[in-house]
Amino acid sequence: MIPDDVLPHLVDVEHPGTKRDRYGNDVDDWSASTHTEVASWLQQSTGAEDNDQRAAQIGEWLMVCNPVDTAGQPLTVYGSDRVHWQGIDFEVIGPPGPAYTPAELHHYEIRLKTVEG
Predict the structure, then answer these.
(1) What 8-state DSSP symbol labels residue 6?
(2) CB 77 within 8 A of CB 67
(3) Distance (Å, rounded) from C-alpha 58 to C-alpha 62?
(4) CA-CA to 24 of 20 to 30 Å: which in 47, 64, 76, 98?
(5) How far apart are CA 44 and CA 105, in angstroms?
(6) Helix or strand or coil: residue 5?
(7) Is 105 in a helix, a strand, or coil?
(8) Is residue 43 within 8 Å of 61, Cβ to Cβ?
(9) Considering the chain, what is the average pLDDT of its residues?
(10) Under 8 Å between Cβ of 36 and 13
(11) Confidence class of residue 117 from pLDDT cuts 50, 70 and 90?
């Protein structure tokens, strides 16, 4: 586990609920989402501008966190989840990357994306 003093950023991980669409398929339902508070380290890894059809700011970030939430419960993050921090809304890019010691799961490395504009 990573010591708490190295994880200064308190983030909200949002996991969507599910509902059935008119075709009987399970789809994400953000009106029934659940939230989990997580201590983490966030840092921006890349930034770009998309000027093809619109003026968009695109940022990719790395979130490093322990495999538990602030309540000590096991943390599960999926590629469909969202992360919120200081007014920024991120999308999770793919599945989280687990990092192990020889004895156990040590932490997660989660890639995030934000798009503005």
Answers:
(1) G
(2) no
(3) 14
(4) 76
(5) 24
(6) helix
(7) strand
(8) yes
(9) 91
(10) yes
(11) low
